[in-house]
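re: that chain from earlier
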Amino acid sequence: MAKSRKLTEDKHTINIGPLRAQDHGNWMISKFYRNERNELVEEYQTISIIIIEKVPSQPQFITLQTGDDFHLSFLYSLPNLETCQLLSKTADRYYERDQNRLNLCGYVVKSVTKEDIGLWEIKASGDIEYATSVYLDVSG
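^ sequence. v structure.
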């Protein structure tokens, strides 16, 4: 029978949380100490806290016929959006923003083919980061 071991935290471990949207961004952790000449010295390390909220997509999975247009977006609008980005497995695939769903980071991929089958992702930035994914299947 294996013995259980109590896990102990390293004396240099820092736990942060729970996190809120206001915590997203760059932070500095610092400590002060006195050196051998009794001078006060600060050591610091900059860290980045990136909060990513997984958001449902519209749709989450879809099967289209070859030649159909593929519309994808976040399921609901997000506050204070600054950027939207569509990521596909094909780097040179043409797509455009869906003018009817700009507030949802909507995109249109025209005339899908079998090469478009797979996972498509939308990433967005606002107060925090947002991400969603849609699996596209193409038949015919």
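The chain has a mean pLDDT of 87.
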